[in-house]
Design goal:
With about 240 residues, the chain is mainly beta. Helices cover about 15% and strands about 40% of the residues. It is globular and about 50 Å long.
Length: about 240
């Protein structure tokens, strides 16, 4: 399989390199079905990376957070959204509260691998490969994928990602959202401060068709929150194991 034509990654603050986008450019053959060990020959699109428009703003984000606008094309977005619309989603409970968003886990879940989850579906494989090339890891290192369905008005509360995962990569579909950050404070320290109100220290807009990588401090030293979205949004995330 030919290598991806991936341009050098760029942070939000640096503007020397334009962000990238995906295009359905050629096909390759996937030799092994993910997760079930079956030797299955499956044809699927392989997305090259091509130049896209630059960001026109400067945003303050935590160290280790990387972002690319127009990471996928409109056609790619429509294809992914069509596949996702056919998935069977489940409700999700967070800290004893049933969330307004719905979820579909693949590969692994949030419970350290104890729950049975289906393998990654073929339609996610090309996107995983391109995200992995940007992140500089082997595609199979992204052992888990989570698709969130956010109906209008659905948020995600303040949280730091599950401890068994390291790199978190995300792609936004159909609509944009805000993502805010604040320093992570362990529960025992929160009790010591008697629940002193904490506010966001950083904020970024995740545009539709954009991608982000959460590594380093942005992944480990901060927690994040997505306020209620205004329109239907799908979020595709991939995670590596520690």
């Amino acid at each position: 399989m030919s290598p991806l034509l991936l341009s050098a990654p760029r942070s939000l603050k640096a503007s020397a390199k334009p962000p990238s986008q995906l295009c359905a450019a050629r096909w390759y053959r996937e030799g092994t079905a993910e997760g079930n060990g079956a030797n299955v020959q499956t044809a699927m699109p392989h997305w090259d990376v091509a130049p896209a428009r630059s960001l026109l703003f400067d945003t303050d984000v935590p160290s280790g957070f990387r972002y690319r606008d127009d990471f996928i094309t409109r056609d790619d977005e429509a294809s992914l959204a069509g596949e996702i619309a056919r998935l069977e989603f489940s409700t999700f409970e967070m800290r004893g509260v049933v969330a307004r968003r719905r979820v579909a886990f693949f590969g692994r879940s949030y419970d350290s691998g104890r729950a049975s989850t289906p393998p990654l579906p073929p339609f996610l494989m090309p996107l995983r490969e391109t995200v992995a090339a940007w992140a500089g890891v082997d595609p199979q290192a992204f052992a888990m994928s989570l698709i969130n369905e956010y109906p209008p008005g659905a948020p995600i509360g303040w949280h730091r990602d599950a401890p068994q995962y390291e790199i978190v990569a995300g792609v936004s579909l159909l609509s944009s959202c805000r993502m805010t950050f604040r320093p992570y404070v362990p529960p025992q320290m929160q009790r010591a401060t008697h629940g002193l109100r904490r506010t966001a220290t950083h904020e970024v807009t995740l545009e539709r068709r954009s991608a982000y990588l959460m590594t380093g401090d942005s992944r480990n030293a901060y927690e994040h929150h997505v306020p209620a979205v205004k329109a239907l949004r799908y979020s595709i995330t991939f995670r590596t194991l520690r």
